[in-house]
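Sat 14:20. Reprocessing the chain from the morning session after the first attempt stalled halfway. Input below, unchanged.
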Amino acid sequence: MRLQESGEMYLETILQLSRKQSRVRSIDVVESMGFSKPSVSRAVGLLKQGGYLNVLEDGSLVLTDVGREISEKTLERHKVLTAFLVSLGVNEQTAATDACKMEHDVSDETFEAIKRHAESIK
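Finished this time. Tokens:
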């Protein structure tokens, strides 16, 4: 079963936060994403149940291997697509917003083609 876009967004956010701070808690996700505490709590529960995330005794959120793989893939797509759109002349904020929408739906084949093309024009 494929993880929904919102799940990928949560995992990507947790990955990014974990790269900036030693411990990621649900409140950090609330503040980063601007969602309500109940929404984040529900998502964390679903991600934990799905095997994408572990919640430690101190409340820290830790990605499982599968969760890390998905979050890293999503983050790479976001970065590559943003850079590609900027290279086409799209302003950075719009490019990041559009990349965020695209990263969840673009096929692996299309993404790899965009990535190769972006690297070839550097």
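The two ends are 37 Å apart (CA to CA).
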